[in-house]
Amino acid sequence: MKKIEHTVGGIDVIRDYLNADTHEIRPNEFETLLDAFWSDYRAFLLKKDKEYGSRYLHPLAVFCDLSPLDRLNARLDEKAGRLFAGNKDENTLDDLLGLLIHRAILLA
Questions:
Q1: Cα four-point dihedral sign 93, 12, 5, 35
Q2: Sign of the CA dihedral running 81, 87, 92, 94
Q3: Alpha-carbon distance 71 to 62, whole Å?
Q4: Dihedrals φ, ψ of 25, to 5°?
Q5: What pLDDT is stored for residue 28 in this prediction?
Q6: What is the gyration radius of the CA atoms in the chain, in angstroms?
Q7: DSSP string covering 75-107
Q8: What is the pLDDT of residue 32?
Q9: I need a labelling partner for 1 at 20 to 30 A (CA). Which of 8, 10, 17, 72 fits?
Q10: Which secondary structure element, helix H or strand E, spans residue 36, and what is its range?
Q11: Distance CA 2, CA 82 (A)
């Protein structure tokens, strides 16, 4: 399990439940891990939203008049392109997950 920077503490719970050698989840602990991860990831997304605003949900549209969904899809393509090119750093994965969450919100 990777550590998300800017977190509030749930990652420590995750580390307690993972097998340190194999990174396997111990039996019957998925719910605890999921709660800890989403708690931290929620805090991470809210921090980013405060820093940058909800540009996907409320775009400025200064240079581009694409819909919010089309903007998200373009960003998802760009992030996926980085992954396919071999860039597997945590920021790219965190960004991709955040974009997918924003997309799910737009489509809800």
A1: positive
A2: positive
A3: 13
A4: -80, 130
A5: 73
A6: 16
A7: HHHHHHHHHHTT---HHHHHHHHHHHHHHHHHH
A8: 79
A9: 72
A10: helix 30-52
A11: 19
Give the model's pLDDT for residue 4.
41
Contact status, residue 65 vs residue 40, Cβ threshold 8 Å: no
Whole-prediction pTM: 0.68
| Cβ contact 45:37 at 8 Å | no
| Predicted local confidence at residue 43, as pLDDT | 85
Q: Which two tokens stand for residue 72?
A: 């998200």
* DSSP letter assigned to residue 4: P
Question: What pLDDT is recorded for position 77?
Answer: 92
Mean pLDDT by 10 residues, the chain (108 residues): 44 56 71 81 84 73 83 89 81 83 88
Q: Could you give the C-alpha distances from 48 to 63, 66, 69, in angstroms and in order?
A: 22, 22, 19
